[in-house]
Amino acid sequence: MNWLIKNGKVLQDNGELKEMDIRVKDGLIAEVGNLENRGEEEYDAAGLLITPGLVDLHIHLREPGGEQKETIETGTKAAAKGGFTTVASMPNTNPVPDNPDQMEWLVGRIKETAHVNVLPYAAITHGLQGEELVDFKGLKEAGAFAFTDDGVGIQTAAKMYEAMQKAAELDMAIVAHCEDNSLIYGGALHEGEFSRKSGVPGIPSICESVHIARDVLLAEAADCHYHVCHISTKESVRTVRDAKRAGIKVTAEVSPHHLLLCDEDIPDANDTNFKMNPPLRGKEDREALIEGLLDGTIDFIATDHAPHTAEDKAKKVTEAPFGIVGLETAFPLLYTHFVEKGYCTLKQLVDWMTAAPSNTFKLGCGTLDIGKPADITLIDLEKEQKIDSGKFLSKGKNTPFSGWTCKGWPAATFVNGEIKWSEGRDN
Description:
Elements lengths: L2 E9 L5 E9 L2 E6 L7 E4 L4 E4 L1 E6 L12 H10 L2 E6 L10 H14 L3 E4 L15 H7 L4 E2 L8 H13 L4 E3 L12 E2 L2 H6 L3 E2 L2 H17 L3 E3 L5 H12 L4 E5 L1 H5 L22 H12 L5 E2 L8 H4 L16 H10 L6 H7 L2 H6 L15 E11 L18 E11 L2 E5 L5
Parallel strand pairs: 1-4, 1-5, 6-7, 7-8, 9-10, 10-13, 11-12, 13-14, 14-15
Antiparallel strand pairs: 1-2, 2-3, 5-16, 16-17, 17-18
């Protein structure tokens, strides 16, 4: 179906909003401007912001093996509702996509059931065990987007260096969950005043930052694109900043919850909706993350959407799994608490969630340029409502933001020129 999206507001390079129309033909953006209908289906976007489809390069879809928590279908429906048109799925599934056959199966499953574009990560090591490296070339040919053992850090420098060399040969990125297991000490929350008062074992900041310090030097030696997942500490930000100044090919992402919360915001140590990995750090860490995002040290925002069952999250804090969901709340949370409060401009936020992740990984999306796929998000910046996890399309309801009132809710999401979610429609 061909569309004419009428009367919406498009962000200009100078940050101003201009009323414009977008013509969608054969799944592509055909024209942008003040346009007349040529017989297309019309979508009245009056009062709505038109942005490129949002891009999230760090989510967990749980399929195969964790379908009780999420599936490719439910997770991508949640993504569409949140305004995301392209997402990248992590490989901590069962089985792990650590061989070409499994990757081919996953790519096929995505084609069958996904509601948005899904880029599948492949593992760095077999079974995410950090020991035997995968067939990098075979996995790339089978459809891998990049390589990561997300959920666990690569513990030996030699193994990470070898992986970076192999990825660099293929012009592929190594994407790292940075955590030195010898420095975790069985922790469940950030090692700080809150964990000490509550008697919960703490995870020290250094377990993340020392891994990044090691890896940026390995990336320099291997001439590899090295990307840091969900950066969370002030020391990590400083290390990435120094590495970029040295010309090392390092990039980094930050998650909304680390920008919006710190350990002082945890109401109760047993509320596992505040348990994620990396954990909510201290107030100074949160401030350093915001500064790093604003000065370009951190490249973009990614949700780390990590759904779990209510039964799993009901366990005590030392036993419950790490992780919260984020796809359906990311934009309104950040618009309300960053743009509306003056931390950043609307253009900065949109760029961090569209063009920046796309440009970092050379994806070619995150734009409203003519000739590009019609991945488009419409957002009602004036709509205000409370976050209600009971209305999530994700199977996961595990969020620390229940009850928060936010503005800036997605109203419709087009993927390759087709409406995949729209407020008030049967989705």
